[in-house]
């Protein structure tokens, strides 16, 4: 299925040479055409050449460089390989350990004008005061969140000590065409959406009042472009990149059922009982999401970057599910 999507030309910026690490994924699918349209030269670094999630003619203007990051890091050469591409801006979409971040930052110190790291709202851990602001204390849990928080701390420390020109963008639950959204049960099982569309019962954990916070991949791409445009405001800062509002599980389920022309038939079970109704994989993913219950503020990104998400959480999910049902030939 080929989808062509609209881009809106942002305000004029100086043409830059931009290296994107991990650019063939969901964010890169939207980000790279935006950058090409803005007049930038783009080099996409990936483990292998693959098609983006959505086909767009502007990808023909991209220079592709094949580097296996894991292999190169094991050899100690990844940082120098990126440095040798002579990018003025480097965007890292696939960094997951402090060691990996340090290797790249050390090689690029003094060599680039802007480094943008893709973080995650998981750096906050459990939600406490909401909407969560970027300035709140980090209390991450789980390997992914802990490592991302350590990366954030390291990158901001070398900005303060050495002037490394870093910006960190923290997306929420990314979705869009080609990428299943987190569902109202807090996992990736598409059957939950099918049941809501058919007016069938959906069982939610607890009272369904935990929250999840989606963002469309194109809005994440928008944020990276805004960080480049507003570099002086962006450097040395971290920003939440999510939709304007989070959703409760039950509010999400109710809205999706209504969108399909149904009344939501919801029931609720305490966590210990609910987890027995699904697979271990689904239960683990649900627990990770409801334990975090993200609800992030975008006030800072709006004020300093002029970030303005085009999609609400529901709109992002609905577009993703329309694409999924069409691709799988599922008739509702």
Structural features, described:
The chain has helices at 26-37, 69-75, 78-83, 98-108, 143-162, 191-198, 217-229, 231-234, 249-259, 271-274, 280-292, 299-305, 313-327; strands at 17-21, 41-46, 63-66, 89-92, 114-118, 166-171, 173-175, 201-205, 211-212, 214-216, 237-241, 247-248, 265-269. By secondary structure, it is of the alpha/beta class. Helix 5 links the parallel strand 5 and strand 6. The radius of gyration is 20 Å and the shape is globular. Mean pLDDT is 94; it is low at 1-12.
Summarize the entry for a quick read:
With 332 residues, the protein is an alpha/beta fold.
List keywords for this structure.
single chain, 332 residues, alpha/beta, Rossmann fold, seven-stranded parallel β-sheet, two-stranded parallel sheet, 39% helix, 17% strand, globular, disordered N terminus
Helix content: 25-40%
Order of helices and strands: EHEEHHEHEHEEHEEEHHEEHEHHHH
Low-confidence stretches: 1-12
Mean pLDDT score: 94
Radius of gyration: 20 Å
Number of helices: 13
Shape: globular
CATH structural architecture of the domain at 17-176 and 213-246 and 294-313: 3-Layer(aba) Sandwich
- The percentage of residues in β strands lies in 15-25%
CATH topology of the domain at 17-176 and 213-246 and 294-313: Rossmann fold
Q: Let me know the largest β-sheet.
A: 7 strands, parallel
The CATH class assignment of the domain at 17-176 and 213-246 and 294-313 is Alpha Beta
Cα separation of the termini: 19 Å
Quick one: CATH superfamily of the domain at 17-176 and 213-246 and 294-313? Answer: NAD(P)-binding Rossmann-like Domain
Query: What is the spatial order of strands in the main beta sheet?
Result: 3-2-1-4-5-6-11
- The number of strands is 13
Structural class: alpha/beta
Which oligomerization state do the chains in this entry correspond to? single chain
